[in-house]
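Dear colleague,

Following up on yesterday's call, I've attached the two folding results inline so they're easy to grep. Please treat them as preliminary; we haven't cross-checked anything against experimental data yet. The first protein's sequence and structure tokens come first.
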Amino acid sequence: MVDEVYQNAFKEVNDILEFTDEDLINKIPTKFKDFIKNNMNKNYVTNINPEITIDKQKLLKETESILSLIYRTYWATEEEKRGFSEEDFKRILETETRKKENYIGKNIDEIFEKRKKASENTEKNSLIVVKKEGFIKRIFKRILEFIKK
């Protein structure tokens, strides 16, 4: 089952697609359009106004994400798609660079030192298993102790 926020977003996307040119609609696979229609909240009332440009309308973040996915996947030119891929690659590199900078010069043992200490503390504080001896063994032990004295 799809979350209600996404159901509302699908309804907004469906309403926007109703006001979209037919040649752009035809670029979207039928399965994807059916998925949107089957999973939208039919009772949700959108405030989509065809007289106002889409960038000035108040849309759910999820709606914007779905529309971005549609544009990026189905409507963008090959040149735009390459540009998106390059931007994604740059963002990934920047993220990885920041991660490396945070750990430069740090010994791996130092990074995980807290985790090691925590596991040592749990080992120290863990319960000791006490084996319970049977009644006959206890009596036999006491007799042996008495005899040794």
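Below is the second protein, in the same order (sequence, then structure):
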Amino acid sequence: MKKKAEDYEKFRVLLVELKRRLKGDVSMMSAEALGGSDSDSQDNRAPIHPAEIGTHSFEQEFTLNRLSDDGERLEQIEAALDRIEQGVYGSCEECGGRIPKARLEVLPDTPYCVKCASNLGG
């Protein structure tokens, strides 16, 4: 049974806000990972002392991994917004069962019910 987008308006608003926040985080982390353009910031420059190179590399790698994770989360949010528009939001993509609203309140972008998420390892 298809649901109307209005039935899940609260989740649409939550997803849009989460998307906005993540996009801001991605923009900020991208600037940091790429060295930034702020000439006043010492943190964005490559290290001069050899002992700092390992720390700098670790921080860059950590930031790039976070960017990758956030990019995947943004894709999941977009997919959830599409499901709302299509009227299938709240239905598990694996088994077709209903995803409880309590789960959606915690993970509004989840495409799976708890049982299927556990079976899929997520």
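For the second protein, one point worth flagging: The helical segments are 9-33, 50-86, 101-106, 114-119.

Best wishes,
A.L.
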